[in-house]
């Protein structure tokens, strides 16, 4: 009876052990990348949140009756800020989901999606920052400097 149970257990070859060890190492390395991307997405969300409150407060407290240019610039700022915040939050959800997986391909898919979303968030932050600077510069009385 003991001989039959010993024969039915498959023995792992050295190649399959190396493959299993390599797969575990890849998963651990990917989880380190997930932590870095999560940190970047959290920073993008925090910066976007602060920029939204600061520039919106400045715009609302400015002179009454904003012109069409100021309104258009403010709308572009709001759109870029919204895109950045939403894409960083969605990237975080992908990363949290990927961190809970044990399959290497699923982790890689989650990281690729999150990388694309974090890239969109950072580009959107750059555009929102440039538009926000333009919005602030419009309010300055330039005639007094010349």
TrEMBL record:
Stretches that traverse the bilayer: 36-60, 72-97, 117-140
Region (Disordered): 1-27
Compositional bias (Polar residues): 1-10
Superkingdom of source: Eukaryota
Domain PGG: residue ranges: 34-136
Keywords on record: Membrane, Transmembrane, Transmembrane helix
Protein name, UniProt field: PGG domain-containing protein
Biological source species: Brassica oleracea var. oleracea
